[in-house]
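Morning. Coffee machine broken again, so started the prediction first thing and wrote up yesterday's gels while waiting. Chain of 81 residues, entered below exactly as on the submission form.
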Amino acid sequence: MATFSMAVLIMAKDIRAQITRLETLYTEQEYTIHALNQITIRHDQEISQLRSELELLNRQYRDLKDNQPPPVAGNEKPPHY
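Came back before lunch.
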């Protein structure tokens, strides 16, 4: 009987250790997921800002291009230039 009781106690300890390990892994994964989510949010904000800046630059470029005076015949560069 004593051997059976000891075996049950050892199994219970092993199960508790496994549960503790699983809880630790779960906590670490929760932290990692939260950290990755924060990074994803920051990247999304940066991408949105970059898109806005690119759109502004494209508009400025088009405005400059549209407002260029036509080339003067005397100022044309030769074809080989």
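The longest helix spans residues 2-66. Going to sketch it on the whiteboard this afternoon.
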